Amino acid sequence: MRTIIGLATALIGAGLLSAPARAEQKEVTVWSWFVQSTMQKSIAAFEKAHPDVKVNYTYYNYSPEYITALKAAAASGSLPDVIGLQPGSLTQQYREDLTAVNDLAAKEWGADWAEKVFPVNRKQMLMGNPAGDKNYYIVPQESQVLCIWYNRKIFEKIGISVPKTYDDLKAAAKALSGAGYIPMFQGAADGWQNENVFLMLANQFAPGIVDKAQAGETKWTAPELIAAMKAWKGLFDDGVFQQGALGAHAYPTGAQLFAQGRVGMMALGSWWMQESKFPPPLSEFVQAMDGFDFFYLPPVVAGNQASPPVGGIDIGYGLTKNGAKNEAAWTFLASLTNGEGLQEALNDLNDLPAFAGHEPKGDISDHVRQMSARFMADLPKAENQRFASPAVAEALDNALAGVAAGSLEPEAALAAVQAATDKALGK
User: Fold this and answer.
1) Signal peptide span per the entry (predicted)?
2) What domains are there in the chain, each with its CATH number?
3) Are the beta carbons of 342 and 358 closer than 8 angstroms?
4) In the predicted model, what is the mean pLDDT of residues 64-91?
5) Model confidence at 318, in pLDDT bands (50, 70, 90)?
């Protein structure tokens, strides 16, 4: 009898015999732009803890592939169980397709779970919700701080220092170009990267002014924002950005060139630390991140301060209404944002945690630990990075592209953003 049972057990383990007592394996579908190699580590850790669940992940480049895929799936009612989100405009664009997670999160982590999320992230989790709607439709996985990364080995090689003034920045760009390097790579075909740089500029003139403008508390045509838009145009005209920036993408093009040591500077964020964890082949500059460091954009006008830290939620996840029908979908989302899945992402230095009490573990260089500590110290004082309204974000993207191309004057471009804001606020 024992021999027969043993044979049956072996056949079940080999997949040659079904086990009526064993529940059928559940599947969870996930879409995101989250780094595929890191996501697979998070999935492996989750599936080890939950062997009855299989996670199927689909990776997209964020722009335009991911955005296009989400629109098509939402239109056809075929969104996956879990989707990667940014707070504010992207979350609001799909709010009707998402499930509020307040009760699920409270059951998972306790009634005070949101208090464990860093304050800037917690604010962004509600950004754009209709008045009185205190539901959370996004759970943050990671935080970020925006900055200017630079290749310090190239800087040393050609004898330039971290820019302290705008004249320094222009001189550094000229020296880099003269030495055959791309000065500051800007993926100006990507609205998100243009927004990030504009936020750096605007906060030099008046910290928090973009938040006030999108809330209707000040005008987009305020002198400070017009000055910031003119400064944005200056980055193109003064040769700080590379030739052809308007047709370029930050990912994969810019990031690959930066990693290969062909770019001097690039506006990215704390997530760039992850490059040190990617498998070979990588350039000599990326290994252990020893070839890289970061600074904040220097003041474009004498007397202003350098750009403050800007940031908040790097990436979060939403449970779709399709996913709400699949109990395993929330289990995976919880792991990914505040469990074993998150730990794998932090170990890969994908970015900073969104929940307090986490830190990367494993083989990390002293230089990276120091940079991570600097980012974590700056995160609590970061200005908000996100936009509440999809229409306002789109209007700003169009304004930035038009001004950069020379087809719009700053005043007219910002007037269009104001009109979109008035409409979004019901004015």
Assistant:
1) 1-23
2) 25-143+312-373 (3.40.190.10), 144-310+386-424 (3.40.190.10)
3) yes
4) 96
5) very high
